[in-house]
Backbone:
């Protein structure tokens, strides 16, 4: 991708944010991550950004295809510890990419950890 093409994509991203996101109530709340996953404008921005950085994982996810190199099966202790320490800091998609796991698998594990924490507290 040439420099000019990248510049055009960045300009397009800026235009979309200025036009559609300026008065959005979701964007200015604590739930800013929802903007990326639920909002059609957020999806458009993610698609533009994936073109900019060449993020094939997001494009495959968009087509509902599972990347072939995603790890399946039991979680090892290292993966669980990483997830425990980072699940409140990063979105599920980012964690899935770092752990080489499917986003739904990471989400399910986070739900499991949170249920366990509630039982321990009670």
Residues:
């Amino acid at each position: 991708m040439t420099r000019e093409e990248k510049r055009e994509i960045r300009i397009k991203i800026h235009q979309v944010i200025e036009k559609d996101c300026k008065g959005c109530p979701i964007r200015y709340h604590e739930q800013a991550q929802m903007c990326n996953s639920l909002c059609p404008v957020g999806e458009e921005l993610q698609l533009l950004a994936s073109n900019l950085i060449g993020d094939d994982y997001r494009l495959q996810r968009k087509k509902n295809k599972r990347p072939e190199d995603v790890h399946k099966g039991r979680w090892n202790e290292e993966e669980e510890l990483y997830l425990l320490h980072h699940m409140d800091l990063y979105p599920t998609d980012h964690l899935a990419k770092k752990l080489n796991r499917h986003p739904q698998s990471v989400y399910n594990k986070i739900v499991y950890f949170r249920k366990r924490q509630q039982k321990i507290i009670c």
